[in-house]
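Fill in residues.
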């Protein structure tokens, strides 16, 4: 059974009925396949109808779904001979950002991504995907290594934001994020970024300042979380739904604003329903972008990356 979101209650009830009928069919040998088929058709229609008209706030909930594939799942499904690399060579290892070298469909690559964890223990280990300065300094180290050895860089973005704790601030959180963005803009290898869940604030842009930005259909990407925005503007996080609408956090909005380059369609009902399918589709999109970017000279790649981000925000201005 899936973990259902609040707006999926009718879907949950229908899936429950189907599960009950299948149980009866297998245990009592009742011939109810026809009824199951009818309910399955109804379920597919309900899923399609629901997910075609998701609000920005509902998309935010889908992006945060606990069963949604995480960075480690994409690495496991797409990267062969992956070698995990740890530490920032300055202070400590930060498991909120994972990274290493591997092979992606015949290409040697560097992979970096936010990792939230799947259960209580792993979420605590990965600090729910919110990195401290050492996480971003590790990302810088890996990107510089990739540049030295002319390896394309693939990043997976999935974080509510950088860790806001006192210890992180004491160790230079803002400086670490800024340096990571600077490193993204400085390297001369292809840099492909995929927003797979939440793209939150500087914690996301620190590893997402790339040549080609891909975003899953129901992912979100914003300067602050809807709850954070609501607490500032309305002094009440209950207005998070209004904030999500106003901030244009969805892939569709960001594509129109030229903040991202391509949207990857998710399986009906979200990436968490068919993880194998979405992992393959993400791989196809990365491969397409990588083949195009690999044709460019390193200096041209860097120049275009900088121009891309300098041009953001100018659309619609005369």
């Amino acid at each position: 059974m899936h973990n259902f979101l609040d707006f999926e209650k009718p879907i949950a009830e229908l899936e429950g009925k189907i599960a009950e009928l299948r149980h009866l069919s297998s245990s009592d040998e009742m011939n109810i396949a026809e009824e199951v088929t009818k309910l399955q058709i109804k379920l597919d229609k309900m899923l399609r109808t629901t997910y075609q008209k998701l609000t920005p706030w509902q998309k935010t909930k889908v992006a945060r779904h606990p069963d949604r594939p995480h960075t480690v799942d994409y690495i496991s499904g797409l990267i062969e001979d992956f070698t995990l690399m740890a530490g920032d060579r300055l202070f400590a290892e930060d498991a909120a950002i994972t990274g290493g070298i591997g092979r992606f469909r015949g290409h040697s690559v560097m992979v970096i991504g936010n990792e939230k964890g799947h259960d209580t223990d792993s979420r605590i280990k990965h600090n729910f995907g919110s990195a401290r300065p050492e996480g971003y300094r590790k990302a810088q180290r890996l990107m510089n290594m990739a540049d030295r050895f002319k390896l394309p860089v693939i990043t997976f973005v999935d974080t509510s934001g950088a860790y806001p704790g006192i210890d992180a601030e004491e160790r230079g959180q803002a400086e670490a994020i800024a340096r990571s963005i600077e490193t993204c803009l400085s390297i001369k290898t292809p840099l492909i970024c995929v927003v797979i869940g939440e793209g939150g604030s500087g914690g996301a842009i620190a590893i997402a300042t790339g040549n080609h930005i891909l975003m899953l259909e129901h992912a979100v990407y914003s300067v602050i979380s809807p709850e954070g925005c609501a607490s500032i503007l309305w002094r009440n996080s209950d207005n998070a739904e209004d904030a999500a609408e106003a901030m244009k956090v969805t892939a569709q909005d960001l594509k129109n604003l030229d903040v991202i380059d391509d949207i990857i369609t998710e399986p009906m009902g979200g990436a968490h329903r068919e993880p194998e399918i979405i992992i393959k589709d993400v791989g196809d999109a990365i491969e397409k972008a990588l083949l195009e970017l690999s044709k460019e000279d390193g200096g041209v790649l860097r120049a275009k990356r900088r121009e891309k981000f300098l041009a953001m925000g100018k659309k619609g201005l005369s």
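The radius of gyration is 21 Å.
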